[in-house]
Amino acid sequence: MSSPLYDNYLKVQRRRLRLIALSRISLLVLFLMLWELAAKWKWIDSMLTSKPSLLLSSFRELAFEGSLLRHTWISGLETLVGIVISMLLGTAIAVLFWWSTFASNVLEPYIVVLNALPKVALGPIFYIWLGDRYSIYGMAVAISIIVTIIMVESGFREISRTKLKLMESFGATRFQMLRMVLLPASVPHFIATLKVNVGLTLVGVVMGEFLSSKAGLGYLIIYGGQVFQMNLVMVSIMMLALLSVILYGFVNVLERFARKKYNYEA
Amino acid sequence: MAQIELKDVGLSYFTLKQETEALRDINLSIGQGEFISIVGPSGCGKSTLLSLISGMLKPTQGKILIDGHEVSGVSPKVGYMLQHDHLFEWRDVLSNLLVGAEIRKMDRGKAKRKAMDLLERYGLGDFAYHGPSQLSGGMRQRVALIRTLVAEPDILLLDEPFSALDYQTRLTLSEEVFQIMKDQGKTAVLVTHDLSEAISMADRVMVMSQRPSTISSVYDIRFDEGDDLSPWKKREAGRYKIYFNAIWKELEEHVVPSV
Ligand SMILES: Nc1ncnc2c1ncn2[C@@H]1O[C@H](COP(=O)(O)OP(=O)(O)OP(=O)(O)O)[C@@H](O)[C@H]1O
Ligand SMILES: [Mg+2]
């Protein structure tokens, strides 16, 4: 069916994609090799910088002993719970703001100030109020919820301007508008918010663990720093990177599913 | 008794900056099954008038009656086809058609049968489960029209329903809409910028003046060739040119002062 010109075009595109993937992997391999060799030839002090082979062995050690995976699991779970809470709570508050323009107008300056406030500063307060375990959720939610409210609400506002006229013409109630238009039309905004939230919530969780916890990757990093074990610090950071990759993967799968179901373009 | 009645209706928009008087002293009565076209300079308040009849807006003066009852809020008797099609891309064609029925809590099975029936009749039967993005502009307008009809209104308000279409589709679609209205005996109010559309579809053409606008005149459209001519035939009928020129001239008078 397709013309030779089109076949050729596809071939060129595919080759390009393969080249990009290959370059990405090579870059990582090159970086690790350089690191390893630099440590081996004493260009750098592996006490300070660690090195890949050392990381691998300490990863094996830590993973075998079970504690690394447990700490990763704990941080992962905290992040997941944090994301869910701030998405639900943030959306609920955005709905409230949409429902009552008065409330939204009254609270707007407070939201702006809260958004600008560095949430780390609240750490001690969360610690005292919520204890060492729940303060982590406090921090995670504090960092991501304001952005959630702002993003979801601005989505609502845009949708209201363009998509509610029809609902009004049929005499829809506000609840019907919410259920039939605002929420389904916001799916792309939810996904975009989720993407931002994965990063922010992870920051919140690690920050919370720095300040107070007895477990999790943030705790491991602080602990490793205190006992001067660079391997431990580096391995934990890698696990953090891995964790964010996995969470982004989740969101991407969700996005593909949502795009099919709600039939929107990215 | 007239089905739609406007008595000394006036409407002003209020914003913090200013007050805009859009309509003043509108008196109008429209009978059951009548087809009215409204023409007038841009910004004179035609859409506002439709919103008033639909109940989406409340008049600041006078009152509006539908079947003898004063309008308060959107009435299920009225179907308002907006200028833009407003199809929801997260719903397929069929469930877009059911939006009105869903809002008004009508029997879902019955609405669905009606929607399928109308889709079939207007040549869109194969598209029931397609997304709106897979339709052409003319198809989308047709879907929007069917969506209005599925809610079973007695009165149809059409706000420049064909303005987004190319000339050819426009002619065909206006022909179809005219047939649908006549078949079902519905009352229709059509706002348009296209004079030939206004004359060929309506029993009466209403011309509105500049803002604050009133109805400056009403033309009864009658042809010697008979009463049930299709829009197509009307465009070729003898008196068509006379109406066209008269209305054209009057509109020109309204438009010129502001330029
Ligand atoms: N929500 C609003 N708030 C304030 N003024 C408004 C509002 N809607 C319309 N107007 C004003 O009322 C007047 C009439 O508007 P309307 O949309 O009814 O005109 P129209 O005849 O439909 O115009 P067009 O032919 O361009 O569609 C305009 O001058 C417009 O600026
Ligand atoms: Mg208008």
What would you note in describing this structure?
The complex is a heterodimer of chains A (266) and B (259). Chain A has 266 residues and is mainly α. Chain A has helices at 4-40, 46-49, 52-65, 67-99, 101-116, 123-163, 165-169, 174-185, 187-212, 217-226, 230-262. Chain A contains 11 helices and no strands. Chain A starts with a helix and ends with a helix. The relative contact order of chain A is 0.11. Chain B has a 6-stranded mixed β-sheet with strand order 6-7-8-3-9-10, sandwiched between helices. Chain B has a 4-stranded antiparallel β-sheet with strand order 2-1-4-5, with helices on one face. In chain B, helix 7 (195-201) packs across helix 9. Classes of the chains: A mainly alpha (266), B alpha/beta (259). The site of adenosine-5'-triphosphate (ATP) has 12 residues of chain B, from strand 2 and helix 1.
Output the keywords:
heterodimer, A: 266 residues, mainly alpha, 0% strand, flat, B: 259 residues, alpha/beta, 6-stranded mixed β-sheet, 4-stranded antiparallel β-sheet, 10 strands, 24% strand, globular, binds adenosine-5'-triphosphate, binds magnesium ion
A few lines on this structure:
The complex is a heterodimer of chains A (266) and B (259). Chain A is mainly alpha-helical.
SSE blueprint:
The complex is a heterodimer of chains A (266) and B (259).
Chain A (H helix, E strand, L loop, with lengths): L3 H37 L5 H4 L2 H14 L1 H33 L1 H16 L6 H41 L1 H5 L4 H12 L1 H26 L4 H10 L3 H33 L4
Helix pairs in contact in A: 3-11, 4-5, 4-6, 4-9, 4-10, 4-11, 6-8, 6-9, 9-10, 9-11, 10-11
Chain B lengths: L3 E11 L4 E12 L4 E5 L6 H9 L6 E6 L2 E2 L7 E4 L11 H5 L1 H5 L4 H14 L15 H14 L4 E5 L7 H18 L2 E5 L3 H7 L2 E5 L6 E6 L10 H6 L3 H16 L4
Parallel strand pairs in B: 3-8, 3-9, 6-7, 7-8
Antiparallel strand pairs in B: 1-2, 1-4, 4-5, 9-10
The structure holds adenosine-5'-triphosphate and magnesium ion.
